[in-house]
Write a structure and sequence with these properties.
The structure holds two protein chains of two kinds. Chain A is α/β, with parallel strands linked by helices. Chain A has 28 helices and 20 strands. In chain A, the strands form four sheets. Chain A has an eight-stranded mixed beta sheet, sandwiched between helices. Chain A has a four-stranded parallel beta sheet with strand order 10-9-11-12, with helices on both faces. In chain A, strands 14-13-15-16 form a four-stranded parallel beta sheet, sandwiched between helices. Classes of the chains: A alpha/beta, B alpha/beta.
Chain lengths: 729, 435
């Protein structure tokens, strides 16, 4: 069996050429299979006498299964014919369709070895992974490019050669170029020169002929319609070439500059006298390429322009933690009277379900579960477009959850196939029940924080009532992290502080809230940032700019000193200074008492603090209150440094450096956010018996967070240096 | 059959494919996908398997991101446009330095669309380790189908037909490391097989070593634990290696009757005495009887106790009949997750014959689940973490007993299988303690 693929620009005449070549070969009593790999599925039409056969993908979609008896028809001279089929223009992913077709045929037991030749007729305009499948090992042994001398056709031919070069491992596959002449000046010369440039040769020139459209009208190949003509002889010659004269080569495709120069010399040069100005070049540097730069938001009809999502992936090319789908859902999940639909495979939804279920199980509010359903995207949705599935699911959800807003969040595959979801949302959204599209597109929309920010902005724009007048002594909380295990206890601490100052909480934007609370966001004039990092800062700026609020950016109330600072700043803004000082004074007495009790245990000790990049002021101040000497604060800079406030001292530690610091400073103990790593890195620890104790990366808020930790630390330091079980490695 | 399941809480074929590779002791699974897709399976794999000692500090480099299992190529938008070849190649070379026995490379849903040719990339990377490419796991396939497809690919790469058979030996098929309590269950099966004088050559891709997997061809028989996770693997092995199978038609060995039938079919195949099976059954019955008598002495609490059960069809079929016939409990709601064609049909027939008014759900979403539990008000709930958490929404949540995955909320170190004869003791113990 010999596998042969014909590639070429759409409309160049591949199907006509391949059908005629096959017809010519079939006259030599060869057993042949033709597989049309073009979504417009007219490849085999001439061999089937004009009959339009059912395609593999069409049968899969309509029947759910593929039967070889139905999709493989017998045409002219016993040639077997199969059409892959594919989506309508503008939807789905035709390349994926080819991948699936070839897999389905294999699964159905199609034995290609029974044929002398298997021909693949493939579109060559886009040589993406799917369209390149026939080039791969196991399919085509030889590839022929059908091209005219037109510029667009040569561009496509060069791209095909590039793809072919990539998929050629040890031996060449390019059989040559079949010149399908269109009658332009110097066409043969152009094609010959191009073939030479890419290291191949012209198999034959197919002249322009009135016979071709006549045969097309009669739904016949030239071999059948006009067998004893010069044109028929050309196809016979190509068939003969394929059968006997094949000289495989690895192509040497032209670079963009070389192709431009070639076209200038052979094509442009014939039409214009001067070389055109260099077109505007867009630098495509893998490390610097910036695809998205807008920051403004357009939320009309609930649709954020996907360009507005912060795409740190393309900007910085740093690894993206989480994905924007999860970030967006982490926001929607916190609205009690909203529902989310993920347009994704079930696996994406499953991972999110588990993540949020675990977060909810840590929450004080156990009486809730992930408000999430999934389109459970199928392969057919990817190939043909998934709008039908999405529409059905949304209609189902509208009935199920009447009057609740529904947020449609998209995954990577959804982003790749590019369904027109905006139109669908617009169609199904009603006055009583609004639907919204969060075009996160999985990781293509950026990391977790990108999705979170985009969702918050959309929800703010859609729901916050701008006509509401602010009232006094009421505040919004901004930036609570929905997946943080400490979020609930931190909220209780902040609530307690605000209550002591006679300030009420209006809206938690966005955690454990409702549409009604979000609508009333502007009842509060002041917002309080309760976490830090660039994402929540950007959200605060956005809310202030768009809704006229004022956000207080205070240090997080972790440990005694920061909590005091936090309270005083709020009190100052709300003119509650006296209340605040009374409150602080009461707490301070108890704090100092406990501190004095612990001091004898810690005073004079030396410590190293090894963070993962998070702020450790709370720990440092508490230790200093206990007269502990903090020799150095360091950080293994491994997680998202941009999302955390770095400590003042050394960052980007290496294990060797930490070991050196330990040797020089001789600490009594090391406190580390990553104790296992620190201990493994400091190889001398076992010898010097310096305990390495963990401290929380996300410590709880409040006056006593430092004190509470130090109490635990006291007990941990009483334990033998190595617990017994550790010897059982 | 509910064809409109939009449930979001089922693991899919991608997770199933990962489970297949992670079920080999010396494996490394490289996910050609984003970090977000790798965190969960990586966490689960490191929780559920006893991999050799790891030094976490060695896993903060590219591809691992602080987790020792399931590295990934941290795909981003640019990779979707330009392909992921360079990252996959770099990852393969780095992974090879860790000296794994086999590397599985799996495209996630997005990278399977762009059609990166993993097989060619592996070939061009010049690595010496055995590497198996999974170009696509489908988009929304079931966990079981993803597992079986991948296992078949793995076996295709590492096994060859042999005439050197190990007498009286079997391969165990149809468990995964993601199954709740899998290690104890496998140990129980091996224990009873040993009582019958039968050696286990290989537990296919469920905590097994590569060497033993390669020896799978030497087994005389394949035994299938759960139809959903083993039927196609067994068929494949029969076709490729000529190893016949038993237990493709029966339910999984949960409960007394199902265990007796399951092990008896193996004993019959090898023409060995069934006495150890009878002995085990009697032992368990004798141990349970006094406890059940005490529990039923005053208010006959077990009889008619309404319960709901959610699991895979082969498991649900066995356990439902055990609870109904042996313990006298009444099923009020049944949910099937993975559907095995034969066991599901058996379940339906059983219900039609004995319990016609039962609520039978197929892959319900969490809202349907809540409605069902609300309406049926079971006192006992058998299922996974999903059902447990949904049941917490009820005013009076039922007592929960884990039997299926995803359930990872409790560490089990004691020998408490759910399957086989000792499994009966575990289940009855759990039931009696719950009521």
């Amino acid at each position: 069996m010999k596998g042969i693929a014909f590639y070429g620009k759409g409309g160049i005449g591949k199907s006509t050429t391949i059908s005629n070549v096959i017809a010519a070969l079939s006259m030599k009593n060869k057993k042949i299979l033709q597989i049309g790999c073009d979504p417009k599925h007219d490849s085999t039409r001439l061999l089937l006498g004009g009959f339009t056969q059912i395609t593999v993908l069409e049968q899969l979609t309509t029947k759910g299964v593929v039967s070889l008896d139905t999709v493989m028809l017998t045409g002219y001279n016993q040639v077997k014919c199969i059409e892959s089929g594919g989506p309508e223009p503008g939807v789905g992913c035709a390349g994926r369709g080819i991948i699936q077709t070839l897999q389905l045929l294999k699964d159905q037991g199609l034995d290609m070895k029974q044929f002398d030749y298997v021909f693949f007729d493939v579109l060559g305009d886009v040589v993406c992974g799917g369209f390149a499948v026939p080039m791969r090992e196991g399919y085509a042994d030889e590839v022929y490019i059908v091209s005219s001398g037109e510029i667009a056709s040569l561009y496509a031919a060069n791209n095909i050669a590039k793809g072919l070069q990539r998929f050629t491992s040890t031996h060449g596959k390019l059989g040559g170029i079949i010149g399908n002449l269109r009658g332009i000046n110097n066409e043969r010369k152009i094609l010959e020169a191009f073939a030479k440039k890419i290291g191949t040769e012209i198999v034959a020139f197919i002249p322009r002929s009135d016979l071709l459209p006549q045969a097309e009208l009669a739904s016949k190949t030239i071999m059948e319609f006009a067998p004893n003509t010069d044109l028929a002889n050309v196809y016979l010659a190509i068939a003969d070439y394929i059968e006997h004269q094949f000289v495989p080569v690895i192509p040497t495709p032209l670079s963009e500059t070389e192709l431009e120069e070639f076209l200038y010399e052979f094509c442009y040069g014939a039409q214009i006298k001067e070389k055109p100005l260099q077109p505007l070049q867009v630098s495509v540097n893998n490390n610097q390429k910036q695809l998205v730069s807008q920051n403004t938001v357009n939320c009309k009809n609930g649709v954020i322009n996907s360009n507005n999502l912060k795409v740190s992936s393309s900007k910085e090319r740093v690894p993206l933690y989480g994905c924007s789908l999860t970030g967006a859902y982490s926001v929607v999940n916190q609205i009690s009277d909203a529902t989310a639909l993920m347009d994704s495979p079930q696996g994406c939804a499953y991972i999110n379900y588990c993540t949020h279920q675990n977060a909810l199980s840590n929450s004080l509010d156990v009486s809730s579960f992930p408000n999430l359903l999934c389109t459970n995207m199928q392969a057919s949705d990817v190939i043909f477009g998934g709008t039908k599935n999405i529409e059905e699911t949304l209609i189902y959800m509208k009935k199920r959850f009447p009057a609740q807003p529904i947020f449609l969040i998209t995954s990577c595959p959804a982003g790749l196939i590019g369904d027109d979801i905006a139109s669908l949302i617009s169609k199904l959204s009603t006055k009583d029940q609004k639907l919204f599209h969060l075009p996160s597109d999985g990781v293509m929309g950026g990391d977790f924080y990108s999705g979170m920010l985009a969702a918050c902005k959309l929800i703010a724009n859609e729901f916050i009532d701008k006509t509401i007048t602010p009232t006094n002594d009421i505040i919004n909380l901004i930036g609570e992290q929905s997946l943080a295990t400490t979020a609930d206890s931190n909220f209780q601490t902040i609530k307690q502080i605000l209550t002591a100052l006679s300030i009420k909480i209006n809206c938690r934007f966005i955690r454990q809230t409702s549409i009604e609370e979000i609508k009333n966001f502007r009842k509060a004039k002041v917002n309080l940032l309760v976490t830090n990092g660039p994402t929540v800062n950007e959200l605060a700026v956005f809310l202030d700019e768009h809704f006229g609020t004022e956000t207080l950016q205070l240090p997080l109330p972790i440990g005694f000193n920061q909590t005091v600072e936090f309270i005083r700043a709020i009190a100052h803004r709300f003119d509650k200074v006296d209340l605040a000082e009374k409150f602080i004074a009461t707490v301070q007495i108890a704090y100092k008492k406990e501190l004095e009790q612990l001091k004898p245990c810690f005073a004079g000790k030396k410590v190293l603090i090894n963070s993962n990049g998070a702020n450790v002021d709370w720990l440092q101040y508490t230790l200093m209150d206990l007269d502990v000497e903090v020799k150095q604060i360091s950080a293994f800079n491994i997680f998202h440094p941009e999302e955390r406030a770095l400590p003042k001292s050394e960052t980007n530690y290496t294990a060797d450096y930490l070991e050196e610091v330990v040797r020089l400073s001789c600490p009594d103990f090391i406190l580390s956010a990553l104790p296992l790593i620190a201990a493994e890195s400091v190889r001398t620890l076992t010898a010097t018996r310096i305990p390495c104790i963990a401290f929380p990366v996300l410590p709880p808020y409040g006056f006593n967070s430092g004190l509470a930790y130090v109490k635990e630390l006291y007990f941990k330091l009483q334990i033998p240096f190595i617990e017994g079980w550790r010897y059982d490695e | 059959m509910n064809n409109f399941s939009k449930a979001s809480h089922r693991p899919d074929s991608l997770i199933g494919a990962i489970a297949a590779f992670e079920g080999i002791q010396e494996s490394c699974t490289l996910l050609n996908g984003p970090i977000g897709c790798k965190m969960y399976p990586s966490y689960m794999s490191s929780m559920l398997t006893s991999h050799p000692k790891i030094v976490l500090a060695n896993y903060f480099d590219d591809f691992y991101f602080g987790q020792n299992r399931v590295p990934c190529t941290y795909i981003d938008q640019q990779d979707f446009v330009y392909g992921s070849e360079s990252k996959v190649t770099r990852a393969l070379k780095q992974i090879e330095q860790r000296q794994h026995g086999i590397i599985g490379v799996i495209n996630h849903s997005g990278t399977s669309i762009i059609g990166d040719d993993l097989s060619r990339i592996i070939q061009n990377s010049d690595i010496k380790t055995i590497a198996v490419a999974v170009e696509s796991t489908g988009f929304t396939g079931t966990f079981a189908s993803g597992f079986q497809d991948t296992v078949i690919q793995i076996l295709d790469s590492i096994t060859n037909k042999t005439s050197q058979k190990i007498p009286m030996s079997v391969n165990i098929i149809g468990s995964t490391i993601f199954h709740y309590n899998w290690e104890n269950d496998v140990a129980e099966i091996k224990r009873i097989l040993e009582l019958l004088g039968i050696e286990t050559v290989s537990v296919i891709c469920a905590g097994e070593s590569l060497v033993n997997l390669q020896k799978a061809a030497q087994a005389e028989l394949n035994v299938v634990l759960n139809e959903e996770y083993g039927d196609r693997i067994a068929t494949y092995l029969e076709a490729k290696l000529g190893i016949p199978s038993v237990n493709l038609n029966s339910s999984a060995p949960y409960g007394l009757s199902a265990s007796e039938i399951w092990f008896k079919s193996i004993a019959d195949f090898f023409k060995v005495s069934c006495k150890p099976i009878t002995f085990e059954s009697c032992r368990v019955r004798k141990k349970c009887y006094p406890a059940l008598t005490r529990a039923s002495a005053l208010i006959d609490v077990l009889r008619g106790l309404p319960f709901a059960i959610f699991g895979d069809s082969s498991q649900v079929y066995s356990l439902t009949s055990f609870f109904y016939e042996y313990l006298g409990m009444l099923p009020v709601a049944i949910g099937v997750k993975e559907v095995g064609a034969k066991s599901f049909e058996s379940l339906k027939q059983y219900l039609a014959k004995n319990l016609q008014n039962i609520s039978l759900l197929i892959n319900p979403d969490q809202f349907e689940l809540l409605d069902c539990l609300n309406q049926t008000a079971p006192s006992l709930l058998f299922g996974s973490s999903v059902e447990k958490h949904v049941s917490l929404m009820l005013p009076n949540p039922p007592q929960f007993i884990p039997i299926t995955f995803p359930y990872y909320e409790r560490v089990t170190l004691t020998n408490r299988p759910l399957i086989g004869f000792n499994g009966v003791l575990t289940i009855i113990e759990d039931v009696l303690n719950a009521i």
